[in-house]
Amino acid sequence: ESLLLFSSFLGQSTVELLRVSTKPWGFRYKATAVHIQRSGAQALPIVALTSFLVGLVVAYQGAEQLAKFGANIFIVELVSISMFRELAPLIAAIVIAGRSASAYTAEIGTMKITQEIDAMKTMGFDPILFLVLPRMFALLIAMPLIVFFADIIGTFGGMIVAQYQLGISYTEFIERMRDVVEVKHILIGLFKAPFFGILIALIGCFRGFQVSGSTESIGKYTTISVVNAIFWVIACNALISVILTKVGI
User: Fold this and answer.
1) Are residues 38 and 142 in contact, defined by beta-carbon separation less than 8 angstroms?
2) Rounded to whole angstroms, how far apart are CA atoms 205 and 207?
């Protein structure tokens, strides 16, 4: 039932997107900029901390094993490729899902209970245009930038471990990364980011519109939206990774 309702919501959002593409002056650019700041810029500290710690852990665990075989220099490929392709996009998306999906659901759910959405419809304003599309475009724009930021911070965490655990200097690390790590690994992570952003925004807004009755349902659907967003982000990441591996990228 939820899947059918979400399909209907996705269809409405697509129709509204096509409509606004023919009349771009009706789009809420200022609201989109505000959501980019809230969902993107204000999320950078927690994304930085999380990515840094993940980079540290990956490098530390890898260093223990590589040191046994005298393959210390391969820590560069281990950290860089794993962060660029998989870990940085996934960690960033999970953090944003926890922050933004819950916020979107709570905001729209509160508007639903206070009948602001009904008032909006009465005045002839489309809630999809005014509430959903700005949030969707905000994450569509912000997610690739957040993922690129997470790439840098996570790799820096790995560089610290390589320096103090394996004796590989920052200069050696960067030169090795430049020589052996292809740009495609960064691009793959950035390619995933917009899909994650759209998923998070749509799920958060969809669950917000489902809120009804009392304020208790806000907590219920906020929890559901976070769980759904994290699940579908992981599922989407797995699907894209399998497809790219099958085609040899």
Assistant:
1) no
2) 6
* Cβ-defined contacts of 217-223 (< 8 Å, 24+): 217/109, 217/113, 218/105, 218/106, 218/109, 218/110, 218/113, 221/105, 221/109, 222/102, 222/105, 222/106, 222/109
- CB 185, CB 86: distance < 8 Å: no
In the chain, the amino acid numbered 149 is F
- pTM of the entire structure? 0.89
Q: Which amino acid is at 3?
A: L
Cα–Cα distance, 207 to 97 (Å, whole number): 13
**Cβ atoms of residues 9 and 122 within 8 Å:** no
Q: Residues with Cβ < 8 Å from 46, sequence gap 6 or more? A: 95, 99
Distance CA 113, CA 210 (A): 10
Question: Mean pLDDT score of the chain, rounded to an integer?
Answer: 90
User: CB under 8 Å to 101, separation ≥6 — which residues?
Assistant: 200, 201, 203, 204, 207, 225, 226, 228, 229
Closest by CA to 110, choosing from 3, 19, 27, 219, is: 219
pLDDT, residue 213, reads 75
Q: Do 75 and 174 form a contact (C-beta atoms < 8 A)? A: no
State the pLDDT confidence band at 239, using cuts at 50, 70 and 90.
very high
